[in-house]
Design brief:
alpha/beta; 19 helices
Length: 422
């Protein structure tokens, strides 16, 4: 759910503090850089970390399952028995959707949970140190919990909107449902997916809706958010393990972030990097060879064309390793970003999660027109419109294709309204 913040008001504040180059470089909000996110079901965990924690922490789960208020609410909703009788998308939606009244009712329960030791431990030991709810850091424990719940519930409803009812996603050309939601094929798919939901004996109040939402993503092959996670054990393993060997003071910058460029498929069905993507990668390699920074961050997910099997960042990684012999230990990838905003946000996240010095400037490189945009005020407006946060601080324009930046810890906040890259 969008926080009630006026974009014009935010821009006034940004101007007052001169975000691009003058404000303090360290965020006032805290998180624990040593906090370990345990990805058991990455696509779910990244979208709905609060709900995953409630499912996986035994004491907390038992406490929630015994909660009389939640038990009575779930019994009244009667979700699964109602859903198995459905024969169309609207019926399924009505069975699983959280109404506005439902969301607020449960939020009020959480707001009055100050005496619930298990819930307060959840906030103190996970929600706060994880950074995934960092925009609520100034709130009390119960307020943070309620706000995190509202985000999760609205995120679940958003998946039902797009992949259940067929409503447009924010970027409909690449993120929309894969089927005709009114066709017989999809009706049968929905019935099959609902039949696969097998709740545990003491199911938690949100689990039927969570399960249905994840089944909708599964039916559409939209698991992008979870691919390669945990990345420090897969595509980023070599570079992650080499971080301890880097002498940061030997370099003027911490990282070189290469913004994504769409891949095309050639007639043989193989990925074909566009000329602009090739140029961006080659420019970054030159900067790396000049020892401007010890690391490349190559960013871009499975974006164009819609449902492409090729990942921008991964193809760039293959290209620079094969053509320029750049060692894998010097390459981090962000294979999830779908837009310029999330190219930057996700790179900032990597820097904080991997303990890359956040007070040492990095470089962003792309085409000249792209950097014109990144270094301009319109980009800030887009951040606030789409993400409700600004994940970086821009400094000097080093060249037509390079601009300095610092990551801001607000980038860690997870956006449940973008299920393919929260």
């Amino acid at each position: 759910m969008k926080r009630k913040i006026s974009i014009s008001f935010v821009l006034v504040l940004l101007a007052a503090f001169n975000l691009f180059g003058q404000i303090a470089t360290k965020s006032v909000k805290s998180f624990d850089a040593n906090y370990k996110i345990d990805f058991r079901n990455p696509a779910q965990d990244k979208n709905f970390y609060l709900l995953s924690l409630m499912q996986n922490q035994k004491k907390l789960r038992a406490s929630l399952a015994k909660n009389r208020i939640f038990q009575e609410w779930a019994k009244e909703k009667n979700v699964l028995p109602s859903a198995v009788k459905c024969d169309n998308k609207d019926c399924f939606d009505a069975a699983f959707r959280f109404t506005g009244a439902d969301i607020e009712y449960i939020a009020k329960v959480f707001e009055n949970s100050a005496n619930d030791k298990n819930l307060m431990n959840l906030v103190e030991n996970d929600l706060r140190p994880s950074g995934m709810f960092i925009l609520y850091a100034a709130k009390s424990n119960t307020e943070m919990l309620a706000m995190a719940w509202r985000d999760a519930a609205n995120g679940l409803n958003h998946i039902l909107d797009v992949y259940g009812l067929g409503k447009d996603a924010l970027y409909k050309d690449i993120d929309n449902v894969s089927y005709d939601v009114n066709g017989a094929e999809y009706k049968q798919i929905l019935k099959t997916k609902v039949a696969e939901i097998k709740p545990e004996k003491n199911a938690l109040f949100f689990e039927p809706t969570l399960a249905y939402a994840m089944k909708l993503l599964e039916a559409n092959g939209r698991d992008e958010a979870g691919r390669f996670e945990p990345m420090e054990q897969s595509e980023n393993k070599a570079a992650f393990e080499n971080l301890k060997n880097i002498k940061w003071n030997d370099f003027p910058y911490s990282v070189i972030l290469v913004l994504g460029s769409a891949q095309n498929e050639n007639r043989g069905g193989e990925p074909n990097m566009e000329k602009r993507g090739t140029k961006r990668a080659e420019a970054a390699v030159k900067m790396f060879q000049e020892k401007k920074a010890p690391l490349l961050i190559l960013s871009g997910g499975y974006v164009h064309p819609a449902r492409t099997p090729y990942c921008e960042a991964l193809e760039m990684k293959k290209y620079v390793m094969e053509k320029f012999k750049i060692p894998e230990s010097a390459i981090l990838i962000d294979p999830h970003a779908r837009h310029t905003t999330t190219n930057v946000r996700n790179a900032a996240r990597l820097m904080f999660r991997y303990k890359i010095p956040s007070d040492k400037k990095g470089l962003i490189t792309s085409s000249q027109s792209h950097i014109d945009y990144v270094a301009g005020n319109e980009f800030v407006k887009r951040f606030m419109k789409e993400l409700d946060l600004v994940p970086m601080q821009i400094f000097a324009r080093v060249s037509p294709i390079e601009v300095e930046f610092l990551p801001l810890s607000d980038a860690l906040f997870m956006n449940s309204m973008d299920p393919l890259d929260p």
